[in-house]
Structure formats: C-alpha cells, structure tokens
Amino acid sequence: MDTDLPETEHDFSVDVIVTPEQVIYCEARRRPAGIVWSHLSIEKIRAIPALSVRAEAQEPGR
C-alpha cells in the first residue's frame, strides 16, 4: 500500500535514504524554520535541558 504518512508542522523529511542495495534521493525535502514552541508543553521543555535554555533565551519568564 502506497499512502502518504500524516505530518505535522514540526516534522521534517530526509534528504537521502541509503540501503545496502541502493541510494534514494528524496525530492520533497521539508524543514521547519525552527522549534515549534506551541507543540511543546512546559513540562517537556523543562525535561530537556537544551530546550529549557533556548526557551529562556527566546521568551524570558517562560
């Protein structure tokens, strides 16, 4: 079955798929512009130190 996978704003696509038999260059490459803060809960941000530091730099008092 060849169907599209559901995507959200924070998903991104790969550039290349490499298997032992072949190399597949993907055409529809997609990257978010940055972190989609609205998709993260405060608990998730606090649980990941790198996100916590970036959140404080982006939005003081968050």
Can you offer a commentary on this structure?
26% of the residues lie in helices and 10% in strands. It is α+β, with helices and mostly antiparallel strands. It has a two-stranded antiparallel sheet with strand order 1-2. A hairpin with a 4-residue loop joins strand 1 and strand 2 (23-25). The protein is elongated, with a radius of gyration of 17 Å.
Which value, in Å, is the CA radius of gyration?
A: 17 Å
Mean pLDDT, to the nearest integer, reads: 83
Unreliably modeled segments: none
Give the overall shape, derived from the CA principal axes. Answer: elongated
Oligomeric grouping of the chains: single chain
Q: Give the termini distance in whole angstroms.
A: 44 Å
Structure at a glance:
With 62 residues, the chain is of the alpha+beta class. The protein contains two helices and two strands; from the N terminus they run ββαα.
